Amino acid sequence: MRSVVAIFVRYPIWANAIIAVVIFVGWLSYYYGIKKSFFPERPPRNITVTVTFPGASPQEVEEGVTIKIEEAVKGIVGIEETSSKSSENQSQVTIETSGDYDLDEVTTEVKNAVDRINSFPLNAEKPVVVKQKSTTIALFMGVKGGVPLNELKKAAKRVERDFLKSGIISQIRLSGFPEREISIEITEANLRRYNLTFAQVAAAIRANNKDVSGGSIKTRSEEIRIRANAKSFDTEDIEKIIVRANADGTKLRVGDIGAVNLQFADIPNKVFSNNERVVSISISKLPEEDIAKISSYIMDYVDEFNEKDGSVELFTLFN
After folding, report:
1. What pLDDT does residue 112 have?
2. Helix pair angle (12-28, 2-10), 10° resolution
3. Which terminus of the chain faces fewer neighbouring Cβ atoms within 10 Å, N or C?
4. 8 Å CB contact between 260 and 182
5. Which residues contact 219 (CB under 8 A, 6 or more apart)?
6. How does 95-124 read in b/e, with b if 16+ C-beta sit within 10 Å?
7. How far apart are CA 174 and CA 153, in angstroms?
8. Mind listing the pLDDT tens digit for each residue in 57-94?
């Protein structure tokens, strides 16, 4: 040991060289190897159960779906706390685990418990059980401009596609607009004129706008699947659906008795910036992603986007 110290005392340049190498290697590790984040990363502990119940009020969702899910998962080992949100058309139950048990095993137990529920309302869709990823907020953005909401949404969707293609960003959520829906509006006068009820019109649309599987035909070399693909989300196709065939051979269609429109759902979901309508873009990061690279890529993208598109403006709210 003394001989090593003596060498460094006799030739101090080597000590300085080693210090310089250590500093340089540390800088390389920091810049290229260490993933950066705003907040400390936490392992995932939450599970969400989502059930869509079209046309139901929050109270109906609470009584018909949410309470039944909470009762079903009660007593599962590894669950620490359960919270729920019952809103119009949807129920969401968030389950926080204790972290003492494997999250995949607890997720499987929750899914099995939810699948055993056989008393959901008839119109309720199949429950979706998802193990939440460990993510942290990286940046908030927005798209604004003096154009219709549909154009803002298209621009935001274009930004979303570009970000996902980049390979740098994988977690994006758009908000500030309701979902699109097909609205069929029929007046009471038309129902009386043609001696119809809402139930009859709904049944005709339901029967003529769906996909039906007819099985399959097997041969020695191939298998042919038979399927009637008649489900359409085009307003013109829905207008052509036959509600009733009259005795004189004429046909009464949906378009003859009502108006079919593709529009945004009548649910308040709006974001504003300086009194301008905005579609918000929320970007999160996974533990293996680097927030510095995400920020650098987005800053360059914003400048390029705004130079090309003059009708809308892409801007950052917080980073």
Report:
1. 93
2. 100
3. N
4. yes
5. none
6. bebeeeeebeebbebbbebbeeeeebeeeb
7. 9
8. 889 999 999 999 999 998 898 888 999 999 888 999 99
Q: In degrees rounded to 5, what are phi and psi of residue 305?
A: -65, -45
pLDDT tier for residue 102 given thresholds of 50, 70 and 90: confident
Residue 189 CB neighbours (<10 A): 9
Spatial neighbors of 17 by CB under 8 A, at least 6 apart, are none
Angle at 68 between CA 67 and CA 73, to 5 degrees: 100
Inter-residue contact 44 to 107 (CB < 8 Å):
no
Termini Cα distance of the chain: 51
Instruction: Report the half-sphere exposure of 251 (CA within 13 A, side-chain side).
Output: 9
- Looking at the predicted structure, is the pLDDT value of residue 25 above 80? no
Which tokens hold the place of 273? Answer: 């910036």
Retrieve residue 256's tokens. 């003859």
Q: What does pTM read for this prediction?
A: 0.58
User: Strands, E, within 33-134: which ranges?
Assistant: 46-52, 79-87, 90-97, 128-131
- The whole-number pLDDT of residue 150 equals 84
Q: How far is CA 215 from CA 175, 218, 228, in A?
A: 41, 10, 10
**DSSP H or E segment with residue 150:** helix 149-166
Amino acid at 91: S
Collapsing DSSP to helix, strand or coil, 255 comes out as: helix
How many CB atoms within 10 Å of residue 57? 13
> What residues have CB less than 8 Å from 62, skipping those under 6 apart?
86, 91
